[in-house]
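Changelog note: in this version the structure field was regenerated for every chain. One regenerated record is shown below for reference.
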Amino acid sequence: MHIERKSGVNLRRVSAITKKEFIQIVRDYRSLGLALINPVLLLCIFGFALSLDVNSVPMAIWNQDKTQVSNDFILDFQNSPYFKIVGYFDNYTELQNYIDRRKAMMAMVIPKDFSKIINSQQAAPVQLLVDGSDANTATIALGYVNAMVAKYNAKFVNASLSKLGLKDFSPIDVRPRVWFNEDLKSKNYIVPGLIALIMMMIAAQLASITIAREWERGTMEQLISTPVRPGELILGKFIPYFMIGFFDLLVAVAMAEFVFRVPLKGSLTLLLILSSIFLCGALAQGIYFSVVAKNQRLATQMAVLTTFLPTFILSGFVFPIYNMPKLIQATTYIVPARYFIAILKGIYLKGQGMDVLWRPTLFLLIFSSMMIFFAYRRFKKKVS
C-alpha cells in the first residue's frame, strides 16, 4: 500500500531514493570524507591560524643614550604583551637586516641626548622604523606605540607635577566598558563566522554532485523510467545531505564550545533551528547547480565560486561591510551568509532572540524557499 500525501508526494519512493543516496555516499569515500573531516579541518586551520589579534610585535632597539631615563622608557615596551624585543643593536645596517628578513616589524632609535632633552622639559625625538608591507598590522602596531608613548608622557607629567607639590590632573577620564566580547578576543567572532563559511561551502559542494552524478553515470535514464516524480527525487536526495550537514553543524558547535571556548550566550535550540533554515538553502543551491550543470566538476566549481568567495569576502565575516564601497555594500544584501553570520553573532555573543533576529531570519526563509523552488522547477524528468 502506497503512503501518499495530498500533495502527491509518495513517502515510499522518497525513502527509496534516500536509501539509494546513502548507499552512494558510503561507497564514495571521498565525498564522505569531505562531509565529515573537512569541517573539523577547516575549523582547526581557520580557528587557530586566523586571528586579528596583534600581540608580541617583534621590535628591534638601538639605544644611543644608554641612561636610566631611556632604559625606563624601553622597559615599558619590554613589559608590554603587545611587543617583543628581539634584539638591541648599535647601527642602522643591523636594524635594516632584521626588518628585511622579517625578524622585526619595527625598530626604535633613541638619540644620544634623549635624557638631557627630557630633563630640560622638552620633547625628545624618537625614530620609529616600521615595516608597512602588512598595512593593517602596521597600523595596529603604531596604535600600540602611540598608546605606550602617551602612557609614558602622562606618567612623566604627573611625576613633574608631584615635584612641584601639585596634584595629578587629567581633564578627561574615559571609562570604557566593552559589551558582548569583553576580552576583545577575535576568535569569539571569527569562529561563529567560520560555522557559516563551512556550512555554506560544504553543503553546496556536496549537494552539487547529486543530480550531476546520476547523469554522468547513466543512471538518470533509469530513474526517469520509474514512477518517481521530480519533487520526490529532489527530496530523496536532499534528506541524506541535510542529515550530514546537520551533523557537521553539531560538530562545529561542539568544537566552538569545548575547543575554542567561544561563549554561547543565546539559545542553542534557536541556533540549531535557524542554522537548519540556512542549511536547507545551501543544499538547495547545490542541487540547483547540479541540475543545471549535469557535470560534477562544473557543478562543484559553480558551488565554490558562488559560496566560498562571497561568504568569505562579502558577508562581514572578516572585512567590515561599512568599509566597503557603496556599490559593494549594496551587493552584500544578496549574500545569504551575511544574514546568517548576523544571526550567529547575535546568538553567540549577544544572546539575542527572535525579537531582534526576525529580519535576517526572514531573508534566510526567502533564500531557502527560492532555492528549493528553482531546483524543483529546473529539474525536468526527461532525457535531453
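Spot check on this record: The chain has two domains: 11-50+185-378, 57-163. Residues 11-50+185-378 form one domain.
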